[in-house]
Amino acid sequence: MRIDVVTVFPDYLAALDLSLIGKARQAGLLDLRVHDLREWTTDRHRTVDDTPFGGGAGMVMRPDVWGCAIDAVLDGDPAGHLVIPTPSGEVFTQRHAEALAAEQHLVVACGRYEGIDARVAEHYRAAGRRVSEVSIGDYVLNGGEVAALVLVEAVGRLLPGVVGNPESLVEESHGAAGLLEYPVYTKPPVWDGLEIPEVLLSGHHARIDRWRRDRALERTAQRRPDMVAALDVARLDKHDRAL
Ligand code: SAM
Q1: What does the function comment of this entry state (predicted)?
Q2: Is residue 137 within 6 Å of ligand 1 at its C-beta?
Q3: CATH classification code of 173-242
Q4: Partners of 133 in the beta sheet?
């Protein structure tokens, strides 16, 4: 998969050289390219923004500069999917990450100031391109770079070969079961007077699976009742329903 990130702060994305995503890039599993939006400016001051029509506070990012940048990184690729992080977008979830991980080419346009001129999304949609405006949560950041880090990490770890043990993706929070993950423990078995649940030492796989499922259900009910309400009742077993 190829991901192009366009930003006025390319250094912000340096973290994507680290850890699993950094290794995936080195291994050629993820072709991640970070670009400075100012490369596509034409004036001496390398201007990317201007005052908002209609008045008001702040500056808006110019559509002409963004258009040149996006066209250049799309490089005529009809598969290129434009992703615009914005607090006014659809809230990004694991389902979005899964859908984007199935794509061949993403272009992430990181806004700053009051955001990107609305005609940019409109223009690419009108041209028949897929455009996703996504929010990483109900709060406002200063720029789209942190959102781009979130998107690249959430999508990148789903690509084949990126996470060493693909089994660890199966039971995760927000996975196919629609639950939060059960609590996890490691050595030492007693820490600060706190013991791990005895069943985890039993070696009895069926009991451990049942215990994990019960804890996942309990935790989800306590912390995310909205997720429990969305569960498919037909997929719950007798024990689940009794809980
Ligand atoms: N004026 C905009 C509004 O009220 O919707 C906020 C602009 S924000 C200060 C600047 C940039 O940060 C946005 O263009 C977007 O790229 C990014 N951003 C801020 N919050 C975000 C969020 N929750 N999710 C995704 N991107 C966000």
Answers
A1: Specifically methylates guanosine-37 in various tRNAs.
A2: yes
A3: 1.10.1270.20
A4: 84
Average pLDDT of the chain is: 96
Are 2-156 and 173-242 in the same CATH fold? no
The single residue listed with the structure tokens 């209609």 is 54
% of the chain at pLDDT higher than 70: 100
Domain spans of the chain?
A: 2-156, 173-242
State if residue 144 touches ligand 1 by the CB under 6 angstroms criterion: yes
Mutate which of 37, 60, 136, 140 for ligand 1 pocket (most atoms within 8 A of beta carbon): 140
pLDDT at residue 224 is higher than 90: yes
pLDDT band (50, 70, 90) for residue 39:
very high
Ligand 1 centroid distance, CA of 72 (Å) = 24
Q: Supply the ipTM of this predicted assembly.
A: 0.99
Instruction: Please tell me whether 240 is known to bind a ligand.
Output: no
Asked whether 53 lines ligand 1 (CB < 6 A), one says no
pTM of the model: 0.96
User: Does 135 have pLDDT greater than 90?
Assistant: yes
137 marked as part of a ligand binding site: yes
The backbone torsions φ and ψ at residue 171, rounded to the nearest 5 degrees and listed phi first, read: -95, 10
Q: Which is the closest atom of ligand 1 to the Cα of 140?
A: 20
DSSP assignment of 169-234 equals GTSSTTSTT-SPPPP---S-SEETTEEPPGGGGS--HHHHHHHHHHHHHHHHHHH-HHHHHTS-GG
**Residues 47-94: pLDDT tens digits?**
999 999 999 999 999 999 999 999 999 999 999 999 999 999 999 999
CATH of domain 2-156: 3.40.1280.10
For ligand 1, is residue 140 a contact (CB within 6 Å)? yes
